[in-house]
Amino acid sequence: MSATGIIQPKTRRGRRLLESRAPKLIEDTRRSMIISGHKVNQTIKDVLTDLHKLKGVDSLRMSRKNDVLPFEAGGDVWLESHGSRANCSLFAVGTHSKKRPNNLVLGRLYDFRMYDMIEFGVKGFAPIQAFSGARSSQLGNKPAFVFAGDGFESDAVLRRVKSMFLDFFRGRQVDALNLKGLDRVVFVTCLPGSKTIVFRQYSVKLKRSGTKVPRVELEIMGPSLDLEVRRTREPAADLEKEAMKQPKLTRTKEKNVATDALEGRVGRIYMPPQNIDTIALHKSKGLKKRKDAPEGAGGAEANGQKKRA
Amino acid sequence: MAEGPVKVTPAELGLGPSEEIDARLEFDLGNLCAYDPSPVDAEAYARDASGACASTASRIMQALVGRLFALPSEPADVGRIAELPAPTTALPREKPIPRPRPPTKWELFAKKKGITKHKRSKLVLDETSDTFKRRHGYSKANDPAAVPIIDAKDGEDVGDDPFSKQKRDKKARVAKQEKAQLANLKAAAKSGGKGALPPTLRLAAALPEHGRGRPVRHKDYKQELKAATRQAAISTASLGRHDRVVAGENVADRKLPGKRKKLPPVANKDGGERTSQSKLVDHILRKNADDIVDVGRAIGKFESAAREDRHRMKMKGANKKGRISKGAGAPTGKTKAGGVAKKGGREGSAKSRGKKA
C-alpha cells in the first residue's frame, strides 16, 4: 500500500495479470476449480479428474484435502476467495460421506460472488479411460451440446442444470468455427419421473455422405455420469438480474476485406507513395553504367534519354 | 467415366434433418447446442439405456450438423470455417459489464473550459547542451536542478537554499497530485462501485467499502497502545504503585478509578435524595424570591426598544402614523421633496435628449 491508500501491483507482470483479468465485453473462457473435499472416494476422485480433463487448460485441480462444504455456512466465502485468487468462476467440489455418498457440487460465481450451485449424487460413472472414443477427439476443442427431455424446459431445477452444463463445458465464445474441429458432443438428458440426469459424451466422426452435409457417427468416449439432483442454491434475485444483463455488442464491419470464391479472404490495403529515386532497389546489370559510354555531357544526355524511355 | 457420379439426396440415405425432427428442435448455433423438448421415451431407456442415449444423440446431432454446415463458410487450409451466429441461450456473465472510467475532476473542468489534450513530443531541445533530451524524468531537458548556480532574485530570503526549495516544491507537487488521484478514485468508487476503478488499482482497506470497514488512523493506534501500556503497568501485585515508571509514561495514568460515588436511594420516601434535592430547590427559591424580576430594569429595556423602533421608522421616511410613503428615501422625510427630486431627474434626461438632437 502506498502512502496515499491506493493499492497497486508491484511488478509489471502483476499489472499485466490484473489487466488480463479485467471485465471484458466478450468474456474469456470461464475457468474452473476442481476441488477435492475433506473426504473423497475413488469414484469421486475419478469423476473430478475427468471433469478436469474436459476443461483442459481452463481448469485448476485442487486435489488435496479441502475443508469446504459449499452448502454450509461459510462455504461460499471459501469458494469466493479461492475463486477470485485463481480467477476461476466455476467450481466442482467432490465429497463422499455416509449422509451424501458420491457427492458432486457444481457451481458458478458472478463477480467472484456466489451465484448458484447444484448438488448431484453420482449414481453411475464410467471414466474416459474406459472407452476408446477419446482417442479421436481433442479435448481442447469446443464441444457440441445435445439436450433432450421436456424437463429441461418445464422444471426450474433442470433448467438450471442445463444452463450449468452449457456454461461449464462450452469453452471459449467464438464467432467462427472450423467445422473439422467439431469432434465431440455432450449429451444430457433427464429421465422422466426421477430427477436423474444422464450425462454422456460422444466423439463425433463426420463421414462422407455424397452431399454437403456429412453423415454423423458417434462413438462413446466418456465420462458417463448418471446423476441424481440433491440440493440446489438459486441465485439472489438482484445478483441474477445484474449477471444476466448483457452488453450491447455492435459488430463493426471490417473495412476493405471481402471473401473471394477462389482466393478466400481478400483485402485491399493502402500503400503509401514510394520514392523510387532513393529507395534501395535490386541492382540489375542492365542499369549499370557502361564503360564504353561517352563521358561528361554526352553521358548525361544518354541518361536523360533513358529516363524518358 | 461415361457415367457421372450418382446423385443421392440426404432423405434417400435416411439422414439429414428430417422435417419432423427439425421442426421441434431448438438450436443455439452460437453455442453449438441443440435441444429436443419432446418427452423422453422412458421405456426405451429402461430397455437399453446406452443404446437409447446413442440413438437420440446421433439423431439430434445429425440435425445440428446439418444446420452448422448450412451456415455461410469460407475454405481454410483444413476444412471450412463457418461463421457462427451470436449465442442465444441466456447465460449469466462471469464479471460485470465493463464501464468507462468516470471522468476525473480535471477532465470535467477541461471539458467545461474547452481545453483539449495535445500530443507533445517526448524529446525537447536542451538549451544548455544543445541536444535533444527527454521532456521528463532522469536527465531531462532544461532541468532547473542540474545547474550549478541559481541566480538570486529580488525579495528572496538570503538564508533559503534554492536547491532545497526546489526539492521541497517538487515534493509538495507530487503530494498534491497523489491526493487528487486518491480523491478521484474515491469519487469513482462511490459513484460506480468497485467496477468503476481501473483493474490494476484497489483502494486500501482503510477506506470503507460497501458500508463496511472502519478507517484506521494513527490516532486510534495511539489510543490502543496507550491503553495497553496502562494495563500492563497496573497489572502487578501492587497495582503499579511500586513499579518503575517508564520514560514517557505519565504516573497519573496509573491511578486506578476511585470508589464509586454512592447515591442515596430515590424510591424511599424518607430517602436522603429527596430531602437533599428539595432542600436545594427551596434554598434557590428563597434566595431569589424577591428579585426575580427587576421592574425598573425591565421598563428601561422596554422604553429603549420603543425608542429605537421610532428612530428606525423616521430614518425610513415614515409619517407620524407610521406609514412609509411611496418614493421615499430622502433623509428629509417629506413626500413632496421626493417628488421634486424625481422631477429633476426627468428634466435631466430631457436635456440630454435635446443635446443629442
UniProtKB/TrEMBL annotation, chain A:
Residues 30-238 form the Brix domain. This is Ribosome production factor 2 homolog. Transmembrane segments: none annotated. The keyword Nucleus applies. GO terms for cellular component: nucleolus. GO terms for molecular function: rRNA binding. Pfam families: Brix (PF04427).
From TrEMBL, chain B:
GO terms for cellular component: nucleus. Residues 312-324 have a biased composition (Basic residues). GO terms for biological process: ribosome biogenesis. Its main location: nucleus. It is found in: Nucleus. Residues 151-166 have a biased composition (Basic and acidic residues). It comes from the Eukaryota. Residues 135-170, 248-279, 306-357 are annotated as: Disordered. It holds the Pfam family RRS1. The keyword Cell membrane does not apply. Coiled coil: none annotated. Keywords: Nucleus, Ribosome biogenesis. Belongs to the RRS1 family. Involved in ribosomal large subunit assembly. This is Ribosome biogenesis regulatory protein. It comes from Auxenochlorella protothecoides. The lineage of its organism: Eukaryota, Viridiplantae, Chlorophyta, core chlorophytes, Trebouxiophyceae.
